[in-house]
């Protein structure tokens, strides 16, 4: 199973998903992220999914859960770089990821976090 | 009764009376077309068809000429396609073929011994008439499909209004296919231009019912997933009344009366200002 690295930049955790997402790797990411948030006290999480071409309902739900978990650590989650096809799939699945903020790219995501901090 | 023999006898008879039959046939067809084609033109078409029909019913040597039948069908296909494209009605198109029966019948009516042969011939013409009709319908379907596609393409432009603000003027009824196309184009443009505000203008949408609202909401939530905010504009008074009486909730989506209001709203939320120079 491949692991997704979590980078800490200032008070932000940066996660760039560059692999085909498997169920286990997402669960692992969620666990790692929770631990990292607890350890660093980061205020924001940016998840870059530019390279993600396929999502299913499980991964969609896990992304929403990551958002909810971060909020418990008083950190905001921004999902950036979603592809149009992925957005359409998530909408068709009825997942609107209410607890997660979104931005077009990493730069805008960072601006969003800094603006709201 | 030998059908091949009847057909052959009939074909020979028709070849003998070619001019007379074609004259009458032309007359009938021209009357049916009500002056949209000249008699000379129709006569030329029908003469070709006539010789193909007689050849198809019996070749000079062998009983039924397969090749002539193929040619005849191809000619009829071409003819009914052009009729369909030029706006002739189905009956006018089919009449072209069926009038041949009348024209021949007027000749054979007096000679009782030709009746079985005439029946065999009539069966052939019926087949051809049906073929004409089928091609006519297929051509019409094709035209409709082409137009629907063209309309779909035409009706979904995505325009850039301002730095970071794009607009989609929706015209016509929103169905699932249209929504899908609009959504794809909108999202692609959002990604390509890096815009974070999109205005969905529904001035050109005649009615907003629950289904249309559902499609709009879907588009908005897909755009939100990309990190773009959507504003719905162009809500006319009647549409507002319908929306409220149907109990449709737009939630936290900003709605505006005009595209100008929506642009002002988007400019405000992106922190841009436009004033007199």
Topology:
The complex is a heterodimer of chains A (117) and B (277).
Chain A: E1 6-9, E2 12-16, H1 23-40, E3 44-48, H2 57-72, E4 76-80, H3 84-92, E5 101-103, H4 106-116
Parallel strand pairs in A: 2-3, 3-4, 4-5
Antiparallel strand pairs in A: 1-2
Chain B: H1 3-16, H2 18-33, H3 39-57, H4 66-85, H5 90-108, H6 115-154, E1 159-162, E2 165-171, H7 176-193, E3 197-204, H8 210-225, E4 229-233, H9 237-246, E5 254-255, H10 259-269
Helix pairs in contact in B: 1-3, 1-6, 2-3, 2-5, 3-4, 4-6, 5-6, 7-8
Question: Which oligomerization state do the chains in this entry correspond to?
Answer: heterodimer
**Residue share in helices of chain B?**
55-70%
Order of helices and strands of chain A: EEHEHEHEH
Tell me, briefly, the overall form of chain B. Answer: rod-shaped
Tally of extended strands of chain B? 5
Instruction: For the record, give the distance between the C-alpha atoms at the N and C termini of chain A, rounded to a whole number.
Output: 35 Å
The end-to-end distance of chain B, rounded to whole angstroms, is: 96 Å
- CATH-wise, what's the superfamily of chain A? STAS domain
The main sheet of chain A comes to: 5 strands, mixed
The SSE string of chain B, one letter per element, is HHHHHHEEHEHEHEH
CATH fold topology of chain A: Transcription Regulator spoIIAA
Alpha-beta classification of chain A: alpha/beta
Q: Summarize model confidence as the mean pLDDT of chain A.
A: 89
| Largest interface chains and counts | A-B, 22 and 19 residues
CATH top level label of chain A: Alpha Beta
Query: What is the CATH architecture annotation of the largest domain in chain B?
Result: Orthogonal Bundle
Describe the structure.
The complex is a heterodimer of chains A (117) and B (277). Chain A has four helices and five strands; from the N terminus they run ββαβαβαβα. The model of chain A has no long low-confidence stretch (mean pLDDT 89). Chain A has helices at 23-40, 57-72, 84-92, 106-116, and strands spanning 6-9, 12-16, 44-48, 76-80, 101-103. By secondary structure, chain A is an alpha/beta fold. Chain A has a single domain (6-108), classed as 2-Layer Sandwich (Transcription Regulator spoIIAA). Chain A has a five-stranded mixed beta sheet with strand order 1-2-3-4-5. In chain B, helix 7 links the parallel strand 2 and strand 3 (197-204). The termini of chain B are far apart. Chain B has a five-stranded mixed beta sheet, sandwiched between helices. Chain B is built from ten helices and five strands, in the order H-H-H-H-H-H-E-E-H-E-H-E-H-E-H. Chain B is an alpha/beta fold and 277 residues long. Chain B folds into two domains: 3-149, Globin-like; 159-269, Transcription Regulator spoIIAA (2-Layer Sandwich). Chain B has helices at 3-16, 18-33, 39-57, 66-85, 90-108, 115-154, 176-193, 210-225, 237-246, 259-269, and strands spanning 159-162, 165-171, 197-204, 229-233, 254-255. Chain A binds chain B through residues 78-80, 82-84, 86-88, 90-92, 96-97, 101-105, 108-109, 112, and chain B through 180, 183-184, 187-188, 190-191, 194-196, 218, 221-228.
């Amino acid at each position: 199973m491949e692991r997704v690295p979590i980078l800490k930049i200032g008070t932000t955790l940066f996660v760039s998903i560059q692999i085909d997402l498997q169920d286990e790797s997402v669960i692992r990411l969620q666990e790692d992220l929770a631990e990292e948030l607890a350890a660093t006290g980061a205020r924001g999480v940016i998840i870059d999914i530019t390279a993600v071409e396929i999502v299913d309902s499980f991964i969609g739900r896990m992304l929403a859960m990551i958002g909810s978990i971060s909020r418990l650590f008083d950190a905001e989650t921004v999902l950036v770089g979603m592809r149009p096809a992925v957005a359409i799939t998530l909408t068709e699945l009825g997942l609107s990821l209410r607890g997660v903020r979104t931005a077009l790219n990493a730069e805008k995501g960072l601006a969003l976090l800094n603006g709201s901090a | 009764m030998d059908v091949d023999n009847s057909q052959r006898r009939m074909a020979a008879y028709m070849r003998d009376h070619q001019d007379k039959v074609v004259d009458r046939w032309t007359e009938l067809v021209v009357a049916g077309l009500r002056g949209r084609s000249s008699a000379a033109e129709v006569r030329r078409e029908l003469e070709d068809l006539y010789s193909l029909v007689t050849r198809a019913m019996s070749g000079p040597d062998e009983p039924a000429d397969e090749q002539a039948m193929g040619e005849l069908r191809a000619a009829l296909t071409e003819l009914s396609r052009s009729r369909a494209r030029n706006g002739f009605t189905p009956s006018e198109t089919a009449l072209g073929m069926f009038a041949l029966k009348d024209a021949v019948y007027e000749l054979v009516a007096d000679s009782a011994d030709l009746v079985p042969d005439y029946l065999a011939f009539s069966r052939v013409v019926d087949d051809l008439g049906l073929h004409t009709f089928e091609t006519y319908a297929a051509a019409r379907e094709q035209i409709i499909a082409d137009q629907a596609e063209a309309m779909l393409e035409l009706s979904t432009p995505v325009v850039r209004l301002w730095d970071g603000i794009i607009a989609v003027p929706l015209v016509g009824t929103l169905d699932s296919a249209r929504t899908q196309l609009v959504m794809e184009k909108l999202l692609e443009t959002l990604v390509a231009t890096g815009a974070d505000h999109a205005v969905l203008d529904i001035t050109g949408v005649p009615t907003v019912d629950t289904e249309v609202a559902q499609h709009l909401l879907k588009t908005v939530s897909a755009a939100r997933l990309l990190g773009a905010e959507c504003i719905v504009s162009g809500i006319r008074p009647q549409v507002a009344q319908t929306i409220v009486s149907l109990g449709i909730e737009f939630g936290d989506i900003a709605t505006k009366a005009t595209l100008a209001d929506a642009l002002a709203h988007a400019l405000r939320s992106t922190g841009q200002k436009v004033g007199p120079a």
